[in-house]
Write a structure and sequence with these properties.
By secondary structure, this protein is mostly helical. The protein has one domain. The protein has a three-stranded antiparallel sheet, covered by helices on one side. Helix 1 packs antiparallel against helix 2, helix 2 runs antiparallel to helix 3 and helix 3 runs antiparallel to helix 4. The chain is globular, with a radius of gyration of 14 Å. The structure holds copper (II) ion (CU). Copper (II) ion binds next to helix 4.
């Protein structure tokens, strides 16, 4: 179960909702550590290569977020890509709670962006206070 990864991902997400780059950086560091500690052998052998690749990619993004506490736009760019990694990860590892994938069509000059949330109430981490309510649920990832 990816409990520690999910906890730290959501703490990072909530720091970005609050426009708090410093807090996002410290959560990013905890997420980086949690990703490094995940036991790949806990998933079926057929999924281990894919999981390893996801963990590697996610760690790079978490590291950049941890190192850019005063550049929140840069943190958000990494967070948006990281969010797809975390979604792919929980599809393999399972999750201890229901997660909502939320889509915001306004992010990055209307290219759009996605993230995961513990709630279906929209609080936008990609745009923060500028457009806090922008987004809609695109997928529900249920506990398995
Ligand atoms: Cu970077």
């Amino acid at each position: 179960m990816a409990t520690t990864i999910i906890n730290n991902y959501l703490a990072l997400k909530n720091a970005l909702v609050e426009d708090n780059g410093k807090k996002a950086a410290s959560s990013g560091k905890l997420l980086y550590d949690a990703l490094g500690k995940y036991e790949i052998s806990s998933v079926p052998a057929s999924k281990q290569k894919e999981l390893k690749d996801i963990l590697y990619d996610a760690r790079e993004h978490a590291e950049h977020i941890s190192e850019n506490g005063n550049k929140i736009d840069h943190q958000r760019e990494h967070f948006e890509i990281l969010s797809t990694d975390i979604k792919d990860l929980v599809v393999i590892t399972g999750a201890d709670r229901t997660l909502y994938q939320i889509y915001c069509p306004m992010y990055d000059n209307k290219k759009g962006g996605k993230w995961l949330s513990e709630s279906n109430e929209i609080k936008n981490p990609l745009l923060g206070s500028k457009m806090i309510k922008c987004g809609s649920v695109s997928q529900v990832i249920a506990v398995k």
